[in-house]
Amino acid sequence: MTAKKVYIETVGCQMNVLDSELVIGALRKQGYDLTDTAADADVLLFNTCSVREHAEEKTYSALGRVVPHKKHNPGVVVGVIGCMAQKDQHAILDRAPYVDMVVGTGQLARIPELVEEVKRTRTPQFAVSLGRADGGRHEVEASFESYDPTRDPSMRPTPFQAFVRIQIGCDKFCTYCVVPSTRGPEQSRQPDHILAEVRQLVEQGCKEVTLLGQTVNSYVYEHGDGRRTRLSDLMAAMHDTPGLDRIKFVTNYPKDMTDDLLDAVRELPKVVKYLHVPAQSGCDEVLKRMKRNYTVASYREMLARCREKVPGVSVTSDFIVGFCGETEESFQKTMDLVRESVFKNSYIFKYSERTGTKAADRYPDDIDEEVKKRRNQDLLAVQNANSLADHQAQIGKTTSVIVERASRHGKRETGPVKQLTGHTMADHIVVFDGPDRLIGEIVPVRIDDASPFTLYGEVLTGETVGVSSEAKPRAARPRRIGLNTV
Ligand code: SAH
Ligand code: SF4
Ligand code: F3S
Asked: Which residues are recorded as binding [4Fe-4S] cluster 2 (predicted)?
């Protein structure tokens, strides 16, 4: 008998990439093989994002493409999982009536059981968590389960890098954002569980972990006996794990960028000197309507503190342009903030109104699409000039690089020397020549040249460097899971 096959498409943030890895790992335990070809699959999963309308439309187009396969094979199971599943629930069937299964972010552990239930009953199955106003805090929290089953290195793009969830949900309630409802209340995972997961990942050959939370620097675990573990404590506790070389964390909330955290980033050699701290806007009135709870002056102060406490740190940000009531003057203030801040990169988004959010209830989406587009381009132009400046400032430096893969844009596809790519200790992407066997190693690279998004360099010696001295066996190269990020 041939193995049952599962196909998955993923949009959205790193949380979704991690969830897809875990869901596929769980289905493999039930005897499924992963396939890259939708037409071969018995189970087709769409791990979704609702943060902007574009992400939802992408999923509906993808769903539309599987209709012929489903028509010819009515027995296949089509599942919509993740943020859109939690947000739209039964309404998904209005646009895609052939969907068999809708599973929210807090119910992913039930997927294997629900797939069987669809096959047995041939009726659509739903598993979603409570809405934020559908019960007491504790009840709603309990309905969003952190999904952290045993890890399977073969499910990751590289076995030596892994995401680790340290926090689920979000309690910030920025007025434009769906995440507090799609991911539920903010809950920090127990440090013991996180540390055990990191140890297990390292035993499987993982060298770099990226700690995930929507506001990861708000992480705090109250032990119940007066002790509390902050992100800085957690990183200190995992720092000496033998074999672990690098620790990253995303995404930071500006107001929670405390000195203990910045001290930890500076003092702990394995912690990558990189902070993603979205500002969203450079105008106080806009920030107020967004309910970001900080002013532009306090963001600037925070940025200066990051750079003073962590010399050489690279900082990236997110911005929303065309938010409700954003005047030309407000937008120019954002331009000023981006111009002066010299972020390594900024992710710039056009405001997308989301039903159910406070912004959608309170403020009209009153900026023309054309104006949003123009502001997006203008801000991007300023950022790109700064990205180039930030990258050029790296020229001449020697930095350790985790070698990830042969460069997709590599010119040398054959022969022993390839173009390889990896990330520096300040999270810059660097391309350099080297043999395949360096993939998965940490090597010193001297930076010789820069473009706005890429550094170019040369490996200095045949020696590999790493913070840890433990030699570990190399894990086998995995197959990639079908990722498709927005
Ligand atoms: N938790 C993270 C990221 C959340 S979503 C944080 O707070 O920074 C990633 C980014 O999408 C946000 O930083 C924001 O810039 C953008 N975003 C969120 N909601 C949006 C919306 N309705 N329209 C456009 N961009 C949005
Ligand atoms: Fe959304 Fe704001 Fe929470 Fe980030 S902090 S996930 S933007 S509500
Ligand atoms: Fe992430 Fe999108 Fe959900 S950004 S948390 S997948 S709404």
From this structure: 170, 174, 177
Asked which of 96, 112, 141 is the last residue of a domain, the reply is: 141
Q: 84-88, 112-116, 340-344, 461-465: which range is least confident on average? A: 461-465
pLDDT bucket at 150, cuts 50 / 70 / 90: confident
Domain total in the chain = 4
Our answer on whether the CB atom of 214 is closer than 6 Å to any ligand 2 atom is yes
Please determine, for residue 19, whether its predicted confidence score (pLDDT) is greater than 60.
Answer: yes
What pTM value is reported for the model?
Answer: 0.93
Does a structural domain hold residue 486? no
User: What's the residue count for the chain?
Assistant: 486
**Residue nearest to ligand 2 atom 4, measured at CA:** 214
| Rounded Cα gap, residues 377 and 383, in angstroms | 10
Separation CA 128–CA 426 (nearest Å): 39
Residues 129 and 169 placed together within one structural domain of the fold: no
Residues 461 and 431 in one domain: yes
**426-473, pLDDT tens digit by residue?**
999 999 999 999 999 999 999 999 999 999 999 997 555 444 433 333
Whether 281 lines ligand 3, by a CB cut-off of 6 Å, is: no
Annotated binding site for [4Fe-4S] cluster: 13, 49, 83, 170, 174, 177
Q: Is the CB of 49 under 6 A from ligand 3?
A: yes
Calculate how far, in angstroms, residue 319's C-alpha sits from the geometric centre of ligand 1.
8
Beta bridge partner(s), residue 434: 418
Positive or negative torsion for Cα 393, 396, 397, 399: positive
How distant, in Å, are the alpha carbons of 49, 360, 486 from that of 99? 17, 28, 22
Q: Is the CB of 85 inside a 6 Å radius of any atom of ligand 3?
A: no
- In tens, the pLDDT along 25-77 reads 999 999 999 999 999 999 999 999 999 999 999 999 999 999 999 999 999 99
Alpha carbon distance 342, 340 (integer Å): 6
